[in-house]
Structure formats: structure tokens, C-alpha cells
Design goal:
Pfam families: YCII. This is YCII-related domain-containing protein. By secondary structure, the chain is an alpha+beta fold. It folds into two domains: 25 residues; 114 residues, Dimeric alpha+beta barrel (Alpha-Beta Plaits). Helices cover 43% and strands 23% of the residues. The chain contains six helices and four strands.
């Protein structure tokens, strides 16, 4: 009887484990550290930057504001708040670039955008959307310095 009870407990325990994850590569500690849900996903905020309505024409001033924009990108990335950033090719919608911010809400994203000099000066305007993506997305950043030959 004791052997049967032990076998039954082991079967139930193995069913519980397999019900929690059907992925042999699943790393619970990593998933938890990244804030992943059961699908390995989480909420971010996608920002589409587009040409703003600024009337600034002073080239050194514009250059300074965009320099501050680039510094802000670096700061947010180093803080883990920005996981993707990049410009877009010229297009008919005046989209200039994108950010994926490692925050859960639009108000949090807007607070971060207020720290960007080019956005504050209206050189860039931002559309913000909640976006559901892989929780592992931030992990690529640690390799970025290994593949770039020079800074912007």
C-alpha cells in the first residue's frame, strides 16, 4: 500500500509540474526576473516619434536638442527603461523613429518622454501605445556594444 501511495504522489507531482510548463527550456528564475507572464511576454509601451510642429530654425539649437535626445536615449537604456530605439527611413507619415519603453503604462511612458529635449522642444512628437512583447527583449542590449564599431 505504501508503494502505491508513493507512486500516486509522484504521478500527481509530475502532472502538476507539467501543467505549469510544457517547455523543457523554461527558466522560472529568468522569467520572474524579467516580469514574464506564462507565455514569456509582458507589457511595454511603443512610442512612434514623428516630426513635431516646432518653428525653431537655429541650426546650432536644433543640433543641441538632438544631441540631448541622443544622450537621453543612452540614459534611459542604461536605466533599463528603453529597450529599443531607432530611426525610420523617410516616409509619407513623417514618422522619425521608434522607442519601446520598458514600462507598463502610458502615463509612465509620457513621464519618460518629458525628459527628452527634442520632444520638449516639439522637434519630435510622440504617439504612444501599449504593446505586448517578449519579456526577453531587454536581453539583447547587453550585446549591442559588442556589435557596434562606433557611437552615433
Amino acid at each position: 500500500m505504501r508503494k502505491i501511495l508513493t507512486a500516486l504522489i509522484l504521478c500527481i507531482a509530475s502532472l502538476c509540474v507539467s501543467a505549469q510548463s510544457n517547455n523543457a527550456k523554461f527558466n522560472k528564475a529568468l522569467a520572474d526576473s524579467l516580469g514574464a507572464d506564462e507565455y514569456g511576454m509582458k507589457m511595454y509601451v511603443l512610442v512612434i516619434l514623428k516630426t513635431g510642429n516646432s518653428t525653431i530654425t537655429d541650426k546650432p539649437k536644433i543640433d543641441s536638442l538632438f544631441g540631448g535626445h541622443m544622450q537621453n536615449i543612452g540614459r534611459l537604456a542604461s536605466e533599463g527603461k528603453l529597450v529599443v530605439a531607432g530611426p525610420m527611413k523617410k516616409n509619407d507619415k513623417n514618422y522619425r523613429g521608434i522607442f519601446i519603453l520598458n514600462v507598463k503604462t502610458i502615463p509612465e511612458a509620457k513621464a519618460l518622454l518629458e525628459t527628452d529635449p527634442a520632444v520638449n522642444a516639439k522637434l519630435l512628437d510622440a504617439e504612444v501605445y501599449e504593446w505586448y512583447g517578449s519579456a526577453a527583449l531587454p536581453l539583447y542590449l547587453k550585446h549591442h556594444d559588442e556589435v557596434k564599431a562606433k557611437d552615433f
